[in-house]
Amino acid sequence: MNPRVRRVKIVCTLGPACAGEDSLRALIRAGMDVARINLSHGSHAGHLRMLRDLRRAARAESKPVAVLADLQGPRVRVGDLVGGAIDLMPGAIIRLVGDGRVGDASTLPVSVPSLPAQLREGDRVLLVDGTRTLRVLRQLKDATEAIVEIGGVVRSHQGINVPGCPLGIGATTPKDLDDLAFVIRHGVDYVALSFVSAPGDAIDLREKIRELSGRARVVVKFELAAAVAQMDEIVDSADDVMVARGDMGVELPIEEVPATQKRLIARCNARGKPVITATQMLQSMTEQPVPTRAEATDVVNSVLDGTDAVMLSGETAVGRHPVRVVETMARILCAAERLFVAGVNLGQHAPDATDAVAQAAVELARDLDARAILALTETGGTARRLSAHRPSVPVIAATPRQEIARSLALPWGIIPLVSLRRRTTGALASAAIDAARAAGLVDDGDRIVVTAGLPLGGAGSTNLLKVQTVGQPIF
What we know:
- The structure is a single chain.
- The protein folds into three domains: 233 residues, Phosphoenolpyruvate-binding domains (TIM Barrel), CATH 3.20.20; 86 residues, Beta Barrel (M1 Pyruvate Kinase, Domain 3), CATH 2.40.33.10; 117 residues, Pyruvate Kinase, Chain: A, domain 1, CATH 3.40.1380.20.
- The protein is 35% helix and 23% strand.
- The chain has 16 helices and 22 strands.
- A hairpin with an 8-residue loop joins strand 21 and strand 22.
């Protein structure tokens, strides 16, 4: 593989640790490709300040950076507790209620009123990321009785997971819809949907985005056991996928998470769907200046699994070393990519003309030892298909549209460039090659493979494939 360009992308969660244009420029220089806005925290005003700073920083660094807005979703939480916290003692009996009362040592309120009545004998109720466990004993008239199996302190508004229990609520809450209108109005590139339980959840969100005249792609987060049980159908419903190992590690037995990650990434690769691996990738660097050996190995294994991107959460949002952690991640990824075997068989993808041209371009670039593949793209579709085949060389995606360039910052191996719109294919290719040369991606004498569509400007019309030597006349 060409060692000059990192293929796996880095998603950074924004927060207080990287606030401000200068800090964001430093993250971009360190390797940030996608910026995540976590809508579970903060205000619209704060997010807008961060978004404006990010766009100024990206312009200053001359690098398209995508924005991923992560909706909170229907998170079940502990209600208000007396004094803000209670200490659950192992073996104690506690009643779960949904009527809004304030909880104490014998009563645990939950934020979803219907949940206690949906619980059945033997169900597990997991609190504080699975570190506190209740087991349901019986239904009472106005509550559900459970026994504390693993005790400890529980605080107001901490998360609750009930593996295998349908919540009976939609994937988007009123808060999510308000947040969605806000992020679409400000032109985010991706919207991540939390706590997906059925294929229709992604379809519904995509329709809501269209109703808002947005073009953001839908990222489905695999967190719930119900989603894992419908893996194929939900992957098919998504534009992109996230392996969200935090809640997944609570919903599933911990020993099943690594195999589930591998299965899910393989499904996405086979369908040509970009996939992000997330949660605790370099968690120790939230405090420490270097990661653990196990974390480095986890990142490498994710690359070898075939992930398009890895995500940093608290490490960049609230950590002590946000720039260092991105630099460290970039080094680990580059080292891992030297082990990666290029090429993916898209056996489950229905072939069409665009995909046939993409596959031919990938094979031609490999056989000719080309420096890069140059995709002249209006919508980004050709570049995505090229990325899905995992070529042995970088895909330089030249587009006249800023929003398309940003959205192409996520998929594996794509280098997005904004190029001027031209009237002829030759002029467009020449401008794109000049931009790639100026960016240091190609040099005179390099052999590249060019893909484009005729007539220019049409979506899904890729039908041209040409071998070109940089510096020689085009067409």
